[in-house]
Design a protein that fits this description.
single chain, 9 helices, mainly alpha, Rna Polymerase Sigma Factor, Chain: A
């Protein structure tokens, strides 16, 4: 019995290491405060471990992990009302994101982050997956919605981005 548990731990550890970027991308998308990001990343890993016995190895691990990570992140954000008072100003958080770019590019990055921060949890998840070049089928599987719904929501998100990020709106 101990050998099976050890093998499962080793398998999980290997999969988690190979797909750890998912955890950090989701945590970075849903939390601006470094401490909250670390807490969220830890909670995502813990929830993945708890759910691992139910993982079907015939399916994509990254899809399974994204689904758990996004659900944990959405729950984390919903319960984070008390953490709002500890938020780091967006400008402080972005200084190292675009250090090598032009000042106008810095402002566009800040605008994009402001836009993302205003999105509800589902649209934030969709945008994250879209920017990851995930297929509509994969997004649908991860989020538990239809491909048609994904396509419609992505189209609406693109329209909102165009409208909100238009040069004459800044």
């Amino acid at each position: 019995m101990a050998t099976i548990a050890t093998a499962a731990r080793a398998q999980f550890h290997d999969l988690l290491e190979r797909h750890r970027k998912i955890v950090f991308k989701v945590a970075n998308t849903y939390c601006r405060d470094p401490h909250d990001r670390a807490d969220l990343a830890q909670e995502i890993a813990a929830q993945c471990w708890r759910a691992f016995p139910g993982y079907d190895a015939q399916r994509s691990f990254s899809t399974w992990m994204y689904r758990i990570a996004l659900n944990v992140a959405i729950s984390f954000v919903r319960g984070a009302v008390h953490r709002d008072k500890h938020s780091v100003a967006l400008d402080e958080e972005l200084h190292d994101v675009a250090t090598d770019s032009a000042p106008e590019s810095d402002e566009r990055v800040r605008e994009l982050y402001r836009f993302i921060d205003q999105l509800d949890a589902l649209n934030r998840a969709l945008l994250l997956l879209y920017l990851e070049d995930r297929s509509y089928r994969e997004m649908a599987d991860i989020l538990g919605i239809s491909e048609t719904n994904v396509a419609t929501k992505i189209s609406r998100l693109k329209q909102r981005i165009r409208a909100d990020m238009a040069p004459d709106n800044s």
